Structure formats: structure tokens, C-alpha cells
Fold this protein.
Amino acid sequence: MPSFVPHPRPQPEKRNLQKVPFVELFDGRLQGVVSSGSSADRVYVSLIEAGTGNFYCSTNNNRPCGGLGGGGGCKHIGEMVNNAIAQYGAERVARYLGVPEPQTSAYGLIGSLGGAKTKVEAGEVFARFLDYLRYVELPASTEPRPEMAWFVTG
């Protein structure tokens, strides 16, 4: 019987948490929350659908991003992809999205997908982000937290 030997994950590169506080590969999408460059009170929810490459970006209040064009997105989507590549590695992001060749830049990856702008409600992604923020506000403790069992370190 062959034994399974897990491959160690590469260490994530440093991400810009002020610019992209939340990025994840979840539910068939690369999705995240990106801070606005013009307003400290506004964030954008950006996402790319695996397989199709369809993308969308809007504020947390479901207003479409003003820079969202038809040819691959906006700067928020680019920031999200760059931070996903730093967090998960280019190969894993490309594989998850269905891109045959890993791309080292956001716009190389987005261009390989060839998706179209497709409206998606931001609420689900933003709610997941707010749920994760709840953990940051918990008081420090040495006791185990069952809700954090998924978070395994070193």
C-alpha cells in the first residue's frame, strides 16, 4: 500500500493587508476585499470565477466599481490577484482558476482566463470577511477555541 507524503506548502510572501485585508479561494472563486484608494470608509469586493474567468468588483454596498471595464477588470481585481499569488503561490491560484500555465502577475493570469464582467452580489463575500474580523476582536487566551480549529500553525 503506497504511503501518502504531503508536500510542504511554500511560505506565503508578505501581503499588503492594509490594501487587501481578505483574500480566499472559496466556492469556485478567487474572492477578496480590497481597500479603496480614495476613501478610508469604502472597500471593494472583487472576485473571479474559476473555469469561466468571469469577474466583478463592487463596493460593499453593491455599487459597481467605476474602473470595471469589459477587458479583465479593474485595479482592485489586480490587487486581489497579486495578493492571492503572494498568499497561495502562482501555481495554486492558476490551478484553482483553471489556467493551464501559472502566471506570476495578476494581469497575466486575468488575461489567460478571458472572462467577462458578470454582476455578482457582494454580500456573501463581505459577510465572510466580517465573520473573520470577529476573530481578531476576541480577547487573547491560551485556551483552545473550537471555532478556530481550522487554523493550524507551524
